[in-house]
């Protein structure tokens, strides 16, 4: 925490030279009030990096953004919620390009410098007449105070916006990193997850920034699951406009490490916000795997447990069913000594050991239930077989998850 300062009510407009907006454009079905189109714009061209879904049915906006970011430069991002523009064929691809073109025309930018993202219902074509008017409205609403509006405009089933900003000292120069994300359901990342947009006024080499993003994504967004479904629209994009005025970060040195740690904090915080706001969730569930032989195996185990429907329902039911946890450890395909595994359940300062050396213990069921009744619950799995660890974030599986997704298109 002493490495950087968390900025109160910070967002994507906290770094120098970024404006944003979020407006109601009529994209969402039967919606006349909720914001559904967002813009983020830098005052100057920015170095850019991105990661994207590995779903074979990647949405049209993902395809277009991957094409436009190839030169490592972007200046704006246009996003709509309410319609994923996924599985929409050639028309969907042309519509995504048109979103970029309309944005560029209204902001006097190059079309290729505009990233495009969408989220919502799959398989429905955009109404480009409505979309065009919405983008014009968003462009006319841009402001250096518009970050929160933008964060609200990208929400679908999210119950709250997800945004954060920090300040890092880079060789005596204050550098800011701001981020926003959306994600509540269809969360099981295979690159990033959901939608995430990060802005920074850091002056940093584009390739170094891309390397940092990919590495951090693996330990943050790729360690989140809500329901085991990988979206067609997942995207995480970082824009760095260099307006902080720091000396360019060009090498893997102390300044790079400070930027890396700051970006890590932002993405980890957004990851936790997504897990906490999982569709229908009543609890944030964290799995910490300790003392594993390899980092790869630690991640396998953490993700296996966090995505287990049986574990998730046990957490919801406040049932200390450690057998479900150890079963998920067992089928994770990680290599470990099954006679060494200890399991603890924790919440805040409360902790109880429920399994030791791969076998159950007699434990206080009342205390265990009290721990599981808390809003934030943690399972600690000590492999006692190495020095590597991993953390995964998720939530419980509730009745409300089914209700939300049973009528999602309604």
UniProtKB/TrEMBL annotation:
Active site residues according to the UniProt entry: 193
GO molecular function terms listed in the Swiss-Prot or TrEMBL record: L-glutamate N-acetyltransferase activity; L-glutamate N-acetyltransferase activity, acting on acetyl-L-ornithine as donor
CDD domains for this protein: OAT (cd02152)
Subunit description: Heterotetramer of two alpha and two beta chains.
Keywords attached to this entry: Acyltransferase, Amino-acid biosynthesis, Arginine biosynthesis, Autocatalytic cleavage, Cytoplasm, Multifunctional enzyme, Transferase
Protein name: Arginine biosynthesis bifunctional protein ArgJ
UniProt-listed Enzyme Commission number(s): 2.3.1.35, 2.3.1.1
Marked site positions, Cleavage: 192-193
Keyword match Transferase: yes
Ligand binding (substrate): 156, 182, 193, 279, 405, 410
Site feature (Involved in the stabilization of negative charge on the oxyanion by the formation of the oxyanion hole) residues: 119-120
One Pfam short name: ArgJ
Reactions catalysed: N(2)-acetyl-L-ornithine + L-glutamate = N-acetyl-L-glutamate + L-ornithine; L-glutamate + acetyl-CoA = N-acetyl-L-glutamate + CoA + H(+)
Entries under SUPFAM superfamilies matching the protein: DmpA/ArgJ-like (SSF56266)
Compartments reported by the entry: Cytoplasm
